[in-house]
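for the recovery benchmark. tokens below, seq after
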């Protein structure tokens, strides 16, 4: 059944768990995520970026996810991840997306507020929920205190931002970043900042760049030829802490990409005689499904769709 992100995040925020937002770009990744949600009885957010829309086609994505939502007995939203402009957002809403993210984090504060507010004005009358981002998701390990202040989300700024825009959820920058190379040294997030943000604002908070980059997956990929030296993600313990401090939505893309790649690489080595794409992609789909299921258990959303 279809829901908005707001419908899924508010109960999560109240009850102290997080809903996973998993990036998909084709039928295999979609059905891995949906099958996991059904088996775990978990609410789920299907996230699609502009580059995945370019890859798969907006009409295909919209229809595939609508079909999944109709068939699956769990609440599910179709969410635009990192939308950057009004045209993309508007096209996604027309295609049936139930939630959108407008990412104005590359703009100056004034521009981010103006763009976000214009998206809220478009989306809310249509029943579509809106996530925005304040601060930048970039590695901060080697930054000075002053540089960190400019990059990470400012709690007072966050309060003013949500009052002026009316967004339903806010993605915060506390030291995570996208991709497989999040830290050179020991993984460290700014939990004190997260605590202060939580105290100042009452809407659901979102953690992007939250893949854990498990070593058992990278080792499997490397064993079969991948080059992933130095890959490092967010430890699961840090994600538990983030949820306890108020994160209600957690975005995962990289771990699914790694699971896909490691499994396909291994498949080609173990079964060189097989050339049926359904068997090759079927093995990758199974691996992605297992990753999603383990995230749902970690985030505490398993069993919450009952
Ligand atoms: O932020 C989301 C992704 O990890 C980056 O996705 O390569 O589809 O733009 P993309
Ligand atoms: P990862 O790259 O850590 O999976 O983050 C994904 C994300 O934030 C998508 O919006
Ligand atoms: Zn993101």
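predicted aa per position
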């Amino acid at each position: 059944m279809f829901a908005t992100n707001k419908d899924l995040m508010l109960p999560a925020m109240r009850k102290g768990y997080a809903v996973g937002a998993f990036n998909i770009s084709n039928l295999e990744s979609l059905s891995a995520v949906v099958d996991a949600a059904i088996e775990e009885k978990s609410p789920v957010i299907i996230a699609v970026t502009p580059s995945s829309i370019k890859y798969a086609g907006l009409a295909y994505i919209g229809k595939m996810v609508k079909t999944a939502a109709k068939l699956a007995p769990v609440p599910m939203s179709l969410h635009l991840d990192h939308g950057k402009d009004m045209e993309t957002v508007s096209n996604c809403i027309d295609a049936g997306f139930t939630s959108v993210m407008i990412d104005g984090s590359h703009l100056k504060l004034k521009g981010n507020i103006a763009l976000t507010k214009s998206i809220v004005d478009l989306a809310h009358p249509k029943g579509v929920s809106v996530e925005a981002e304040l601060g930048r998701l970039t590695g901060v390990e080697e930054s000075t205190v002053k540089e960190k202040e400019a990059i990470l989300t400012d709690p007072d700024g966050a309060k003013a931002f949500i009052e002026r825009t009316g967004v339903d959820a806010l993605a915060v920058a506390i030291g995570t970043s996208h991709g497989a190379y999040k830290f050179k040294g020991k993984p460290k997030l700014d939990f004190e900042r997260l605590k202060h943000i939580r105290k100042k604002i009452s809407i659901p908070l979102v953690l992007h760049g939250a893949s854990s980059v498990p070593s058992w997956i990278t080792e499997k990929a490397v064993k079969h030829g991948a080059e992933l030296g130095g890959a490092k993600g967010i430890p699961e313990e840090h994600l538990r802490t983030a949820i306890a401090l108020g994160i209600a939505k957690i975005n995962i893309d990289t771990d699914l990409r790694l699971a896909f790649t490691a499994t396909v690489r291994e498949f080609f080595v173990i079964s060189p005689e097989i050339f049926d794409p359904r068997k090759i992609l079927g093995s990758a789909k199974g691996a992605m499904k297992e990753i999603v299921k383990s995230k749902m258990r970690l985030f505490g959303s398993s069993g919450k769709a009952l």
